[in-house]
Amino acid sequence: MSLKKVIIVPDVYDKSTWAEADVDDVLLYLHDQFAPNFPKNARIYHNDIAQSRDVTPENVQQIETLKHLDGRFYVVIYPAYDPFTIAYLIVVAIMAAYSVYTIMTMPKPAAQAAGSSNNELANRTNQARLNGRIPDIFGRVRSYCDLIAQAYSIYIDGIEIEECLMCIGRGYYQILDMRDGETDVANIAGTSVSVYDPFTSIIGEPIYRVGDEFTEFPKYVKKSDSINGQTIERPNNAVLESSNVWFESPNLIKSTGIDFTQYFAATDRVGLSGAIYGIADVNLTGQIMITESKTVIIESTTNIDNPNLFKGLLLTGALVDIVTTAGTPPVSETNTRDVSGQFVVSGVSKTVISGGFHYEIVLSSPELINANWDFVNDDYTITAGAVLNKNSNSISLDDTYTINSLTSNTIALVNPSAINDEWDKLLTLPDQSTSGQDVLVRFDQVSSKYVGWFNFDMPEAEQAVFNFFFPNGLFYQDSKGGVWEEGITVVIEIQSINSDGDPVGAITTINQDIRANNKSQFGRTVYVDLPINGSFRFRLSRTTGTQTGKTQDTCKIKNVYGMAESNIDNYGNVTVVRSRTAATDGALSLKERKLNCLVNRKLPLDGTGALQVTRSAAQALIYNALDDHVGRRSESEIDIAQINAEIEKVNTYFSSSIMSEFNYTIDDDNLSFEEIAGMIASAAFCEPYRFGSLLRLKFEQPQDNSVLLFNHRNKVPKTEKRTYTFGVQKDYDGVELEYTSDEDDARIKYTVPEGITLKNPLKITTSGIRNEAQAKVRAWREWNKLKYKYVSCEFEALDESELLIRNDRILVADNTLVSTQDGEVDTVDGLTLHTSQPCNFETGFMYYAYFQLPDASVDMIQCSAGPDDYSMTLARAPLLPLVVESDRYVKTLYSLVKADEREKQAFMLEELTPQTQMTNTLKASNYDARFYERDHDFI
Questions:
Q1: Which of these, 744, 748, 807, lies nearest to 779 by C-alpha position?
Q2: How far apart are the first and last CA of the chain?
Q3: d(C-alpha 785, C-alpha 783), whole Å
Q4: H/E run at residue 662
Q5: Backbone phi and psi for residue 599, each to the nearest 5 degrees, phi listed first
Q6: What is the pTM of this model?
Q7: Helix 60-67 to helix 26-34 angle, to the nearest 10 degrees?
Q8: Where does the Tip attachment protein J HDII-ins2 domain lie (predicted)?
């Protein structure tokens, strides 16, 4: 079979970016190149790049067709935002689809690693964020450092010492303070913290230090998840398993061939497992449906006799995508709920169907077991585990009992039915006994306990480290009140395991003596060098039972670690924090880790210059655009001078630089650069957009003039729709905006209007705002827009609309009315203009005309009636010559209005969506200067 050539084309206009490969299987090669997801904006062409050669599969049949094609295949990856090409300068808003509300209240994706604690609203702690994005902090933020290695504790002189390796984020930072919770670490005895710049040795010179220096590399450590503070007790191996036993009412266990007296004695407590007789549980497989009426419907090939005898249903992994619809117009929302649990069954009905059986299982008040059942609002088909259990004819005698007396073949228990009422069911069996039923039953002497065996998977392990904890101290007190030294011997057994988790080699046993005269809690760390480096299993016990009364020797296992040497000198472009904390009353004391520091990001000036401490949104945007992991733009694609100039406009307008700050931790690896650019710009009251290939900013401020004029000449006929609102949208009675205080890092909710209790506010959680003035101006702008927006329009406009950016002021003639006067200028004779449409001037009214000028601005001029019905006379000359030549692409457009109706045509663009190759759908609402009336009240 001949090879096929695949050419991947990232940029169809730049052949230097193309990559070729000769392959046997085109689909397998594309899977290897693009897994896990083939780009949504990519197309596959066969032999030539042409629409008629598009073979991108849309279904299984087309995939099969593609498999059998030979020749050459082009995989063209189109840009997500394809720039339009027209004869004049082009401006395309890269955030047209993102409203201020969307950017500021953007939800986190559901399936992703945990977010940085910096952005949490409460309970901020140091945490490991496995597979999470390294935080990118901009501006000034209180950083709760992320763990980048396993934190571990050891005991020195009985005191717990915890060592952590953490990171603040990518890049360089100014460290302003260091706290544990609310307390300065300098005031916590035994605490040492050092902060290291990127590309700096973590045993080198720190940029910030409190306490002792760190002169050794931290250990490479893994922690056993199996240890949770178990008590170390004396072991007893008296465990018995046998199928030669049966149970008789009211309290007897009998056997053949077993001498119970070799294993147990009177008053011993015995645990039974596997003593289940009668009807076994049934695992149902097949299609499962849950209903709003609290019924589970299962179609299965399993035939169950008397299914109505089952009184329990165990659902596992029962995840339901519940759809709710609300609002006007209706908006659907999907939330995943887990409805798993052990439920009470009130009845089961069985119906024979083709190929199997249909079971309807009615649950009794499942919402009392799992509250998520209250959200089930329809019938949903799911995939889950389902087990019918608790059959009324089955008998389960598993539990823990006390032995009253015993002989070689009989055990008499102390009133077992008081512990497990299933013993009463023995009365229904022949001879009131389970004799003749072959069941393997396990007997455990309850006082027999090892901690382990536990497998520990760490191929690099060189040591096993055990932290033993004595919560009541370790001592002996005599009858006269004297306190004396006491000791115990803990037994550590270690054995190597292979890659399958199976034990190999000999068991190593360590008897570790621990002695103390200490009435307070303390701990001891025991280090065990592994006989063979690698994964291992362990178990723990002691040589004597735990004593009570005059001797206190309760011993618990607090932590078990696998440990190896590490020689990692630095962590690249990351600011690293090392901490060592003693568990004194003033420090850790076994509480949650809350080490935090106030930091200010250092960024290279304009992306490439010297590092400087900055909170500027402009510098954050430029840095992200140039970042190889985020924007991946070059300097030639960023209008750095314009971005800085636009931010200076913000500072000048507000007379303060705090209004153009961006202070936030970007930690979401699902955020695109476009979304990040929108967040940064929004915090500074701006919009990002492209001017040709250049990234730019536009400041949203009061606009005295409009950018473009739209009338019937540049609208697609019959596409205009207008909506009038009476009252505030969605009956909002205010705005509730949440931001972070720059003074004490508290989350603050600011509501407008002030002084009233809001019942239905628009809720906004900001990203990047950390000062009061910035937050209040944002809140008032949003509230004023809600108050003063009363008309919305939507229409399809011709291609000059591509010049627009969101929030641009535009003029829109109301072409839903017959009386609208608009058109284009045919000729100019001095100050007299001849028009394409009649101009009607009513006596007693003053008129103004709006003209679309060739520099993308609109001129408004007072005018009066001309010499005929198709003309008007201007009170002054236009700012620029009007375009009337017949060979031009479009002539000057005009709109004629009465003086008192001038503002009715002023709109603010909210959304621009490409409709066809030559048209765009515009959505806009009325423009009102009162949107900005509180802009200068809080500076």
A1: 748
A2: 75
A3: 5
A4: none
A5: -125, 155
A6: 0.62
A7: 110
A8: 460-556
